[in-house]
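tool_log.txt
---
The assistant was asked to compare two proteins side by side. It first ran the structure predictor on the initial sequence, then on the second. Raw inputs and outputs are pasted verbatim so the downstream comparison step can read them without reformatting.
(1)
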Amino acid sequence: MSGPIVHGGGLSAAAARYGGDPAAWLDLSTGINPNPVTVPVVPVAAWHRLPDRGLVDAARMAAQSYYGSTGILPLPVPGTQSVIQLLPRLADPARRIAILGPTYGEYGRAFSRAGFEVDAIGELSDIGEAHGMVVVVNPNNPTGRLLPADVLESLGRRLEAQDATLVVDEAFCDCAPSESLAGGAENNTNLIIFRSFGKFFGLAGLRLGFVIASDSILAGFDEDLGPWAVSGPALSIATQLLSADMSALRASIVERKIALDAVLSGAGLPASGGTALFSLVRTADAGGLHDHLCRAHILTRIFDYAPDWMRIGLAPDAAADARLAAALAAWLRP
């Protein structure tokens, strides 16, 4: 059984090892928008009362419009991690699980802990009749691989024909909405789509996500999560933000991504992958560079299964870009 996975964002642990006030560190270890949106005003009733049906329905309707899931009202959940851990309950224990990787490690861990045989596949062509559930993170974390929507729609139809389920994690799809499968999800009863709320809006601490799937699948998740799984304030915030114009937010993310890639290229570390919210670079001594940056109180993400990979998230502003550039220049200096 695999142990806990080390994710990005461990500022307290990094500061305990390398020193400094965690608040003064530059955290580039996650794929979260470093410039969160202004949190809208939350009615006092949302704090005071248990979240009632009206709040839930309003959030679901706003999510339907935002994600374009015609015919399906997305189910709000307390972060997509909460439903990743429920996926084994939907899978046939007599069949294998295929996960297109390398990717977010919690999928493999959830199925392995539940006793499933898990195949880490590198290509969609590796999927066979023995697989009862297939997981694809699209765009992928950490490589940024983006499979066209029509390719995944074709895969979905194939899996439906063999009574298998396709899970598509679209946590980083807010800046690539044309590649989302949400618009056609109502036509495939064996398709499950996960959407993250916190990454794009920069509100990961809200612990909110949405699931787009058939009514029966959503009802199962809803029952397993139990009553009041998502807080009233989270539902209120989601309803307001998902109903607002986010074009300026997308533009700011694009601007920050361009700036990050310019810094990396200038340091001789051009991005070899990534999404709108992070870049992946390859360097022979990623561990050594990670340690060097930590000593400059800059946190990045490295991977035990790929010692030459480093994932670097967006910096919040030009001053932070310059701080990263200076630290990289010091590493490269003979």
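(2)
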Amino acid sequence: MEFWFTEKQTKDFGITMRVKQTYHSEKTEFQQLDMVETAEFGNMLLLDGMVMTTERDEFVYHEMVAHVPLYTHPNPRHVLVVGGGDGGVIREILKHPEVEKATLVDIDGKVIEYSKKYLPTIAGKLEDPRVEVKVDDGFMHIAESENAYDVIMVDSTEPVGPAVNLFTKGFYEGISKALKEDGLFVAQTDNPWFHQDVIRKAFKDVKETFPVTRLYTANIPTYPSGLWTFTMGSKKYDPLETPEERFGNIDTKYYTPEIHRGAFLLPKFVKDLTE
């Protein structure tokens, strides 16, 4: 008998895939965590029934969260990741030699624990000496930080459960305070097919907080609709003005200097959400 998992991305639409086995299922202090092996996308992390990452397509999300801001900022020495307990963004950050320290703050230590066990190609750099891992509330960590980071990356779930506070104007204002005078941040801001309201509100709130605000996209097959957005808020640097000589020769599967620029070219219905 075959077992199929369906993520209901709206009440009328979902994505389904065949599951070969379930490694772990647990109701943590914060959310339902499931680690499964799928036939099409390999090992997969699910939180509250939503796909967080898979072995097959994870590189798109993690590269686009990390490399766009790290190449936009000319000297990103101290970097913070809020969420991201699977370790994928940390892995990509460490490809930048100028980064002296990367701090990961995730509220749910179980995500970190089981990602290390079942997603070693994603979480394998969490033990790196340049990395500090904190099991803590990212919202409060931001609120208690000031002038501490060059770049902040918000690698959260969708705005449900413990991630709700990470989509508020107060959080973006806290990020501005936690950044240095020329700092910048990036947050995942959902998809433009089913959650236009999330993008519209996030972009508006960030734009009211940062002088430079940009929206960019990437294609991630296992995320709702496959088209995903990211919002950047910057105190000084514009990702569209990143000089050619700043791009380094790092190992990627999705990100390129051309993608860095092209990702900001938005379909009209997406661009309309920023106006």
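---
observation on (2): Residues 3-53 form a domain with the Spermidine Synthase; Chain: A, domain 2 fold (CATH 2.30.140.10). The chain has a mean pLDDT of 95.
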